[in-house]
Amino acid sequence: MAVGNHSQAVEEKAASRSQSEVNRKLKYISLAVLVVQNASLILSIRYVRTLPGDRFFTTSAVVMAEVLKVLTCLLIILLQKRLNVKQTVLFLVDSIVFQYKDTLKLAVPSLIYTLQNNLQYIAISNLPAATFQVTYQLKILTTALFSVLMLRKSLSRVQWVSLVLLFAGVAIVQVEQEGKKEASVSGSSNQNYTVGLVAVVISCLSSGFAGVYFEKILKGSSASVWVRNVQLGVFGTALGMLGLWWNDGAAIAERGFLFGYTGAVWCVIFNQAFGGLLVAVVVKYADNILKGFATSFSIIVSTVTSVYLFGFHVDLLFTAGAGLVIGAVYMYSLPKTTGGGAAAALNAKAGGVAASLASLRKDVGTEMEAFLPKAKEGVASLPLAVRMPD
Q1: Distance (Å, rounded) from C-alpha 62 to C-alpha 119?
Q2: Other Cβ atoms within 10 Å of 382 Cβ, number
Q3: Residue 333 contacts residue 289 (beta carbons within 8 Å)
Q4: Please, which residues have CB within 8 angstroms of residue 98's CB and are 6 or more apart in sequence?
């Protein structure tokens, strides 16, 4: 019997070790995918928006990305229902139509995400890819502020310091870029640095608010992330179509919805749709430290690639600003220490010493009781005059 239990314990330990190894590999895979997706999306949008010739309509690209996200989520839900179409349809009707009050809550973040996606195209069309990537990290600051205001979250001192460093790094990059007016931007009549900067700031504000609002909704219900993404996609597609009609309705009616679409444009749209769903998958295996590394490393990748693709010039001031941003992102991503870090460790150590002394006092008391003769019945026993040091 003992041999069987030992064998079972060994097998469970081996399985646990194997699962831990698999999770470790998935973490690094998730890190690599996140880095590639973050860097490639910025570079690809910058590339397709600076190509000569007919330009595609950004409003149609936003709508197409929303449609692809909805279709992907529907496919995942269908797979979860074991390809049972009837059960899937009934589930979606109940989640989206019958629980319409819950669905309407997603209208606000959906509107903001649609606005953010359009602003992202505007910003990257008017800013160098590396400058946009660094400045866009301001969304960490806006997310933190909205988290404190809306979710009553508390930030550690390290996180507050990292937010100050983040702001300083972005300010340095913007002063440097404003001072020399990047040739690739100022030399083109189609690009406006001020418009790009305003677009990225508004995008950061909308990203912070929408992210915190969406988190609040997710924590307040038991609906899955895929159902929430379908609800977001439904509103996002409708609002995107409204924006398309308002801004480019006449032009699209004349030239077509897919006007200007090339293979590179389709890659951008698929990348944007994939990025909207990637977080839900990566969070399962990657922690905050890995996500911080991925964001930081993607800035480096996009900056280095911009040097070769767009002739972007990296000088000392830009390097210093980008370095501050990368350090701030990493510091903000560090997990909080419970109980005040060193103080908590000292208290734990003191508690361990106290427990050891208490155990020693008990053992000595037991030995003394065994050594001394027991009191006779009817005679009170003398108090033990042995006191262990506290």
Answers
A1: 10
A2: 8
A3: yes
A4: none
Residue 243 class from Cβ within 10 Å (0-12 exposed, 13-18 middle, 19+ buried)? Answer: buried
Cα distance between residue 349 and residue 328, in whole Å: 32
- Give per-residue pLDDT as tens, 221-277: 667 778 888 888 888 899 889 989 988 999 999 999 999 899 989 999 998 888 777
Residues 6 or more apart in contact with residue 230 via CB below 8 angstroms: 70, 73, 74, 77, 92, 96
Q: In the chain, what are the domain boundaries? A: 18-336, 340-370+384-390
pLDDT band at 282 (very low <50, low <70, confident <90, very high): low
Number of H helices, E strands in the chain: 15, 0
Structure tokens at 370: 């065994």
Taking a C-beta distance cutoff of 8 angstroms, is the pair 135, 174 a contact? yes
The residue among 379, 325, 14, 311 whose CA lies nearest residue 140 is 325
Residue 57 near residue 260 (C-beta atoms within 8 A): yes
pLDDT at site 349: 44
* Residue tagged 């969304």 (tokens): 139
Q: Are the C-beta atoms of 231 and 106 separated by less than 8 Å?
A: yes
Neighbours of 162 (CB within 10 A): 26
pLDDT reading at 367 higher than 70: no
Enter the DSSP assignment of 311: -
DSSP, collapsed to helix, strand or coil, labels residue 80 as helix
CA 131/CA 318 separation, integer angstroms: 9
Q: Which residues contact 149 (CB under 8 A, 6 or more apart)?
A: none
pTM of the predicted protein model? 0.64
Determine the Cα–Cα distance for residues 308 and 123; give it in Å rounded to an integer. Answer: 21
- Phi/psi for 277 (5° steps) reads -100, -15
Residue 101 CB partners (closer than 8 Å, separation 6+): none
**CA-angle at 238, arms to 232 and 244, nearest 5°:** 125
Helix axes 193-219, 225-255, angle to 10 degrees: 150
Say how far apart CA 390 and CA 388 lie, in whole Å.
6
Is the pLDDT assigned to residue 134 strictly greater than 60? Answer: yes
Angle at 330 between CA 324 and CA 331, to 5 degrees: 85
* Cα-only R_g, the chain: 29
